[in-house]
Every structure is written in C-alpha cells, then in structure tokens.
Design brief:
This protein has 129 residues and is an alpha+beta fold. Helices cover 47% and strands 32% of the residues. The relative contact order is 0.16.
C-alpha cells in the first residue's frame, strides 16, 4: 500500500513538472515572437525616418540639390509612400507615418534599394534609382 501511495505521489509531481514546463515553453515562444515583431517594427521605423530626413534635407538645401540613399532590404516587404508633409511606410505588420516638414513634394512610391531625392525648382522628387 505504501509503495502504491509513493507511486501516485511521484506521478503527481511528474505531471506538475510537465505542466509547468509546457506553460513556461508557451510563454517563452510568445516572448520570442514579440521580440521578433518589435525588431521588425523598429527596422521599419528607422527606414522611414531615414527617407523622411533625406526629403527634409533636400528641401532645406534648395533647388538643384540631390541625394542618393540606400534603403535596406529586410525580412518584411515594404513600400514607402512619399507625400507632401510626410512619408508612410506600409509593411506586413502595419504602417508608420513620419513627418518631413516638406510640403512641395511630388507623390511617389519607393521600396528597398537605391533611392534618388532631388529638389527640382523647389519641388522634391523621390524616385527609385
């Protein structure tokens, strides 16, 4: 009888250990997925800020200025819409808007790779190079 009681206690302890292991594994998997998403969102925001700063520099440098920048390719596909006053990056996880403070901007879409930003007569033109 005593051996049977010890076996039952042992099985309960093992069951609790397995249950705790499964619970903590699920939490770790969720944390890993969240960290990956945060890294992707940070990358997208950095790319959007990079192009917004370049648009503003071109606007401030005046007519005739031009700048060639490189936008990184990352795991997610993305497109950046250049508009008067801001840039909007859209990707698999959502979108992010960044102000440029440049309002004489021709609407255009760009993605990763070489991008040319030109100030043509006071109007900013952004195109894939």
């Amino acid at each position: 009888m005593r051996r049977a009681q010890e076996s039952i206690n042992f099985m309960i302890v093992i069951g609790l250990a397995v249950t705790l292991f499964l619970i903590f594994s699920g939490i770790i998997i969720q944390d890993t997925e969240t960290a990956i998403n945060l890294r992707s969102l940070t990358n997208m925001r950095s790319i959007n800020e990079k192009i917004a700063r370049a648009v503003y520099r071109s606007y401030m440098n005046g007519p005739g200025s031009e700048e060639n920048i490189s936008l990184e390719q990352v795991e997610e596909n993305y497109t950046i819409l250049i508009r008067p006053g801001n840039t909007i990056i859209t990707h698999d996880l959502g979108s992010n808007t960044n102000p440029t403070r440049a309002y004489q901007v021709l609407n255009n879409n760009v993605t990763y790779g070489r991008v040319l930003i030109r100030n043509q007569g006071g109007w900013i033109n952004v195109s894939q190079a």
